[in-house]
């Protein structure tokens, strides 16, 4: 209980009156709503928003008695490029961003080990591997952020307009959009010409013949309408790792997180990290399977490589890993050990 006191003058006499009032519980007394601004680079209908970010926000709201709300800004509505989203989070323009660290070339070199060719085979096991690798080897390069999740896109493959990519020779002479530095090196090693451009520009570029196809995840095919301008979609033999992959991240402004009340931080903590990584992985694998079915239903072809072609492509791309080990070694980091760790985690 708490007392509210006031005085009143009656007939020249001053009367003091004290009223008892109940003390409100702290959560009700504060009644503060925390709105988190979340930005990403894909359209609002993309699985990242509809199947992961929005349900995650709903969970935060329910777990916080509706004290946490989200305001989502898809398709770079807060400005900048996909590669600049990490700075939007770091500088507080957005509270949280979902993006690919690899879009910001040179900023997150260690986590690139999980993007090297022929490591990730699917989104669920790949995402677990990325999260464990981050915790063991790459936490330092993300220390400017509160890391809510790091996951894998399940693998990057080839989507082409005029001819399928079967073996290394079929890539020669083709201009291919590549999402990251590592995927660009992979395209180059296989005889193609890598072209860097944002996901939103890829479909138009293929339609106009600016590029012949794209190295991209299955997950972005339908959000960007890539299946409307490509006919052939390559896949490795069943159960084999993909040609490269892209690490994706949900990053929060560190000061914004630290300034939140402890109970709000606790809600975010128990609904992020490993549980959120699992959801990303499961959703991505579901979307990959559904996208392949949609592509075939609309007249496209999923071209599964022969083991011989796959092995030849893998041998041709080995130079990408060798160069990366040398590059990271120049920073005083044991690249070979990181690659071994990445492969071991992804193979579990």
Automatic annotation (TrEMBL):
<dbReference type="InterPro" id="IPR038404">
    <property type="entry name" value="TRAP_DctP_sf"/>
</dbReference>
<protein>
    <submittedName>
        <fullName>TRAP transporter substrate-binding protein</fullName>
    </submittedName>
</protein>
<dbReference type="Pfam" id="PF03480">
    <property type="entry name" value="DctP"/>
</dbReference>
<keyword id="KW-0732">Signal</keyword>
<feature type="signal peptide">
    <location>
        <begin position="1"/>
        <end position="31"/>
    </location>
</feature>
<dbReference type="GO" id="GO:0055085">
    <property type="term" value="P:transmembrane transport"/>
</dbReference>
<dbReference type="InterPro" id="IPR018389">
    <property type="entry name" value="DctP_fam"/>
</dbReference>
């Amino acid at each position: 209980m708490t007392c509210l006191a006031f005085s009143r003058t009656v007939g020249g006499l001053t009367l003091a009156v004290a009223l008892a009032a109940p003390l409100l519980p702290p959560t009700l007394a504060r009644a503060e709503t925390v709105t988190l601004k979340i930005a990403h680079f894909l359209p609002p209908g993309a699985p990242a928003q509809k199947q992961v970010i929005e349900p995650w926000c709903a969970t935060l709201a329910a777990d916080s008695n509706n004290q946490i709300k989200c305001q989502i800004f898809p398709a770079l509505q807060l400005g900048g490029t996909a590669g600049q989203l990490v700075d939007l989070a770091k500088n507080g323009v957005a509270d949280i961003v979902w993006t690919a660290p690899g879009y910001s070339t040179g900023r997150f070199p260690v986590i690139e080990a999980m993007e090297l060719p022929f490591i990730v085979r699917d989104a669920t096991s790949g995402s677990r591997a990325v999260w464990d690798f981050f915790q063991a080897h790459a936490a330092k390069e993300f220390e400017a952020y509160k890391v809510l999740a790091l996951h894998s896109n399940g693998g990057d493959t080839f989507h082409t307009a005029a001819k399928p990519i079967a073996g290394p020779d079929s890539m020669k002479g083709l201009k291919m959009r590549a999402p990251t530095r590592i995927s660009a090196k992979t395209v180059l090693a296989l005889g193609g010409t890598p072209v860097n451009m944002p996901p939103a520009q890829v479909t138009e570029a293929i339609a106009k013949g600016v590029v012949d196809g794209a190295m991209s995840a299955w997950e972005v095919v339908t959000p960007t309408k890539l299946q409307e301008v490509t006919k052939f979609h390559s896949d490795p033999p069943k159960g084999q790792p993909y040609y490269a992959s892209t690490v994706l991240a949900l990053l929060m402004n560190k000061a914004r997180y630290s300034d939140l009340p402890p109970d709000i931080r606790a809600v975010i903590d128990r609904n992020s990290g490993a549980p959120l990584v699992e959801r990303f992985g499961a959703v991505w694998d579901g979307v990959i399977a559904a996208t392949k079915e949609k592509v075939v239903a609309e007249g496209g072809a999923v071209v599964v490589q022969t083991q011989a072609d796959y092995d030849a492509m893998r041998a041709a791309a080995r130079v990408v890993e060798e160069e990366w080990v040398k590059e990271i070694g120049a920073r005083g980091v044991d690249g070979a050990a990181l690659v071994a760790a990445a492969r071991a985690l992804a193979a579990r």
